[in-house]
Amino acid sequence: MVKDIYFNITYSCNSRCLFCASDSPYIHEKSQMKFEQIQKCLQKFDITEKDRITINGGEPTVHPEIIEIIRSCSETDAKVILFTNGRKMEDPQVAKQLIEAGTLKVAIPLYSHSPSRHDYLTQAEGSFSETVRGIDNLTSLKNSGFSFEIELKTLFCKYNLRELPRFPEWIAGRFPRLKDVLLSSMNLSRCALQHQDQLFITFSDAQEIVNEFVGEAFNLGMNLSLCFIPLCLLDSELREKVLQRRDPSEYQTSHYYFDPSNLQGICGFQSNAKAGKCVTCGLCSVCDGVWDTYGKVIGYNEMTPLYDIDSRKRREKKGGVQYAV
């Protein structure tokens, strides 16, 4: 089974996002894992090239030992994934050092194609321009022969929802060679809830526009992934396209989580949750469900089983899984 080892190496950050999932404006300020601690964590595992190591924060690139950490993770032969706001990578040398250290995938968020809206959500003036320059520098590295992936992430909230359907077209125009895009719902962290009047929207109220975004992304030939957006909220044709692009191995993974407060690690750590009735849905095993925070605050009434799981089992016996959606 694939191992997914996830490090939140620091709670420090050079942005102050209104929806910060680590609640960094409020707790754990400047708390971080040390390089030696991360090495000890890695020694607990028999890591192979099939496994993944994700490095996140806070903002991991502000960690003073980030290059050493990436290099050490890379030496395990696992796929090293860096979650970063990309601002430090506006410096071409920083971008090159992070890739040369062994990063095989960089996932960077943009929350709007409007600089002022992105900067408002990050509460960091100029962050949009810095992130875009960081993506440009990474693209230049790929063009010069470095082999790694770039994924552009975004999320939907009340503040950026109306412009969301136009975002894929902007991405295609500004970064024509960037095809990997991820759309996420918002984690209702303590920080996000303190700004809920500006940010919060239910899945039901966002459903139509989310479907527009997904449809436009597919029309533009993007490799779209969804994070914690229930499949039952998608139109049937779009749902089928999402399923066709999903890797079954993603759902046969052992998850391990480490942060400055959890140096021993949490096995089986998950941030998502599903309604009890979801077990009767034939897509339960390949659906993320919702953020557990969303379920706790809002509940699960918006989630609807698509078809009975017994029907799926009967189809499997006749010759393979068929997604009748």
Overview of the molecule:
This protein has a single domain, classed as TIM Barrel (Alpha-Beta Barrel), CATH 3.20.20. The protein is globular. Helix 3 packs across helix 5. 33% of the residues lie in helices and 17% in strands. The protein has helices at residues 35-42, 66-74, 92-100, 115-122, 127-143, 167-174, 190-193, 196-199, 203-219, 236-244, 292-297, 309-317, and strands spanning 2-8, 52-56, 79-83, 105-109, 149-155, 180-184, 223-227, 253-259, 262-267, 272-273, 290-291. Residues 309-314 and 319-325 have low confidence and may be disordered. The protein has twelve helices and eleven strands. The strands form two sheets. It has a nine-stranded mixed beta sheet with strand order 7-6-5-4-3-2-1-8-9, covered by helices on one side. A two-stranded antiparallel ribbon has the order 10-11. It is an alpha/beta fold.
Choose one word for the global shape. globular
At CATH level 2, the architecture is Alpha-Beta Barrel
How far apart are the first and last residues' alpha carbons, in Å?
Answer: 28 Å
State mean pLDDT (0 to 100 scale): 91
Keywords:
single chain; 325 residues; alpha/beta; TIM Barrel; disordered C terminus
